[in-house]
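Async update (no meeting this week)

Hi team, since we skipped the sync, here's where things stand on the single-chain job. The sequence we agreed to prioritize is pasted below, unchanged from the tracker. I ran it this morning and attached the output directly underneath so nobody has to dig for it. Comments welcome in thread, and please keep replies under the output.
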Amino acid sequence: MKKGFLIGAGLIVAGLLLQAGVGPFRWEWLAFPVNLTVLLVSLGLLVAAYLLRRKIPFFAWMMRLDAAVPAVIYALALTLVMGFTAQREDGGGIPWISQMLDFWPFVLSYAWLMAILGLTTLNHLLHFRVREIPFLLNHLGLFLALVCGALGAPDTQRLHMTTREGETTCQATDEAGNVHPLDLSVELHDFIMEEYPLQPGAKMRMPKRFASEVTVHTKKGEAIPAVIEVNKPLQTDGWKIYQYDYDEEKGTESEISVFELVREPWQPFVRAGILMMLAGALCLFFFMAPRPKKEDKQ
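Output:
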């Protein structure tokens, strides 16, 4: 496994040089259509590497445990560092380490692991055997979830929409305050708020439930009446609309409701990968279950 550990160390060094030279990795570089192009090119390279495995021994070596184990160790080590370090988006904390997702060694290590995983999965897929169904489901599901999760992250949108009772709003703002016109609009009919009884010694009652009665107008001309509550979003036109906030000063008399709109176009593929891993785990129990012996059958 010496070669695998040397390659992993080389990626760490290359990542540190990139981090110092060009700054942190910017996921917005991979926004659509760049991410789709990267995915298609990467899949093409994996197929080419598989076809050339007999002529170029390095590609055949990538499908062995000698390559996979060191790659997993490096990826897990960096993930543990991220897990034990407070991650901050404001640029504070430990330099580089507190923004691990933007850390070049982290990105390169996982890219190398995904290349090994993809090539290994392709090899087993083309040499399919029934007893390898759990292996294929687990590995293909993991590849799908991680790759689509990473490449789809730049396309995720989180916007906030402030609405007023009796008005229709068709634009929202991002974290930087930029205004985004939308293909849908939200008409707020009524803001609903329920409170717990006033507790002894308390000066104000705590909110028990707050929701909004709305009609969502889609780009197809549909008018969808709904009640949007906390943890009960409305899903339409690729958006999830969450109840986010209200005018806290007015409380139950608030005429303003704030929604969070989330769009994650790659999320169905990530969910499909997770479901494949779960199916692989179930299949593993089935295939590994002990079979009755002949004398048991008699």
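Quick observations from my side:
The chain is about 45% helix and 25% strand.
The chain has a mean pLDDT of 92.
Reply here if anything looks off.
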